[in-house]
Amino acid sequence: MSDITASTPTLHGGSPARSAPITAVGPIAWVRANLFSGWLSTAVTLVLGYLIVRAVMGFVDWAFVNAIWSVPVNGNGVAQTQACRELHGTGACWAVVTEKHRFMLFGTYPFEQHWRPALVCLLFVALYIVSSMRSFWNWRLIPIWAGTLTAIGILMWGGVLGLPYVPQERWGGLPITLILATFGLAFAFPLSILVALGRRSNLPAIKALCVLYVELIRGVPLISLLFMASVMFPLFLPEGMNIDKLLRAQIAIILFAGAYLAEVVRAGLQSLPKGQYEAADAMGLSYWQKTGLIILPQALRTVIPPLVNTFIGFFKDTSLVLIIGIFDLLTAGKTAIVEPSWQGFGVEVYVFVGLIYLVFCFAMSKYSQGLEAELNRHRRR
Amino acid sequence: MSAALDTQGHIASAARTDAPPAIVLDKVNKWFGALHVLRDVDLQVALGERVVVCGPSGSGKSTMIRCINRLETHQEGKILVDGIELSDDLRSLDAIRREVGMVFQSFNLFPHLTILENCTLAPIWVRKMPKKDAEELAMEYLTRVRIPEQAKKYPGQLSGGQQQRVAIARALCMKPKIMLFDEPTSALDPEMIKEVLDTMVMLAGTGMTMIVVTHEMGFARQVADRVVFMDRGEVVEVGTPEQVFNDPKTDRLKMFLSQILRGH
């Protein structure tokens, strides 16, 4: 509460405060306090510093200095990777990425139509950016999402507006990952809120249903859910009816993510003191007014870190769809190096694919930190 | 709003015996599990009457007033508020909660909303008042509790006494006919108790029907038309402040008063 600054004289009229000596503030003080505070910390600093410099230099050598960025292609379209093999691992063969990046990003989607999945990826990124802006957090988001997702569907399938039809079996790469993650979380999050509320409901049937759902889904590995969705589920459908494989995997992911997120949301609901519910009740707010205006805004703010943690986890877990033969980004990367001339260059491919995942996950993480700080303004004094 | 004071500094009673009673409790019984917390509680509160409820902790006084707006449910007996009987019917519950304001011991302001938003929330969503009107009304009540300048702040930035005054303003914004106070000063530092009690005295002067659970005997003497003494879930004595404090009839009340006085 007090506002004592460096230049304020002391309360009792004594000598004015002097500025701190250079050894107590500023970068020099920081280095002394954190890196060289004693002989042990000095030794640790020197050893670790040496190791870090060695590792960074080694990586720079491998990734940039000795790297090969392109290789010649012979008349049959087969890449001549001799130069890469002669490096014996001392340098990266980025040629594999240069040559194969379109396959990794878009899978087996018809080559001359690649602009369509590329545009889809851009649309997704634009959708994320718009959705992250708080000035759009109102009814406008609903038409924006509906419009963008329709456009994405049209672009991917085609068959209208002069776009050739592309069956879902030929989709692959980054659009698949983004579709699974975006639809997955966009549906799983509202579902999880309903389930978390249902688990705290006074109505025994609703409560039992929600408990059963969460415990059943959480108790089973995602992989087995995916298998069930791809193998068992069609057996229960009536003759002649068939649901798209991607959609089945999508539903499995939504159900799985929903169960996990529900527990995170429930933790937030439980963190609220009983008085908040009572005050809302005493004012005559209805259940949904109380939940929407008082309870959820507070509960969700509290659980932003674990919520985003789960979001990031599921973004990466979409790669598990490879086991039921769906071609997501990671599977496409893996398939790209099946070709004999490119075998053995897995590291470069995985670094590239990993970098794409990292960009999305890091953006989510950074955004959530900013959001947390902004939404919890009221906690500051 | 100058409160009419009689010779003892007591605010003149506004109780209207001609009108039907604002609150009727008729043989109300309540159990928490096997624990019998309210035993045959009978109480009638007239429109405009101010009742102070006191008693040792665990005597059921908070439970009783929480039954009046159904934050707790009673198992036996009848409770009528403003002529409407409390039941499981949600519509009658909504109607009652609209007419009954409540102030809690721990304030229970909504920390994620500003002071102004705290006050306008229920008028906008429950009374369906236009936002602008609700804000004007809220500023009027915030002025009455003498904190209009804090309207844009969050509850966490205010002192306890200020928060409790906001809580009173928030309840008043619903224009309730009845106000319930559940130990409104018990969670406050001593120097803040007076500002909250002053606000409540001001409110008493407007003729509001009030039921106040409190141990503040000075407040009870100044504003109460009647004092209810409860012990172990029963209403033991009811009377004017003079009767109850100066001339206790039962040993239980005598003991309670001696403990209260020793504590002060």
From TrEMBL, chain A:
InterPro entries linked: AA_ABC_transptr_permease_3TM (IPR010065), ArtM/GltK/GlnP/TcyL/YhdX-like (IPR043429), MetI-like (IPR000515), MetI-like_sf (IPR035906)
Residue ranges annotated for the ABC transmembrane type-1 domain, each copy included: 174-368
Gene Ontology BP, a term: amino acid transport
Matches recorded under Pfam families: BPD_transp_1
Molecular-function annotations in GO: transmembrane transporter activity
Listed SUPFAM superfamilies: MetI-like
Subcellular location(s) of the protein: Cell inner membrane; Cell membrane
Membrane topology note: Multi-pass membrane protein
Full protein name: Amino acid ABC transporter permease
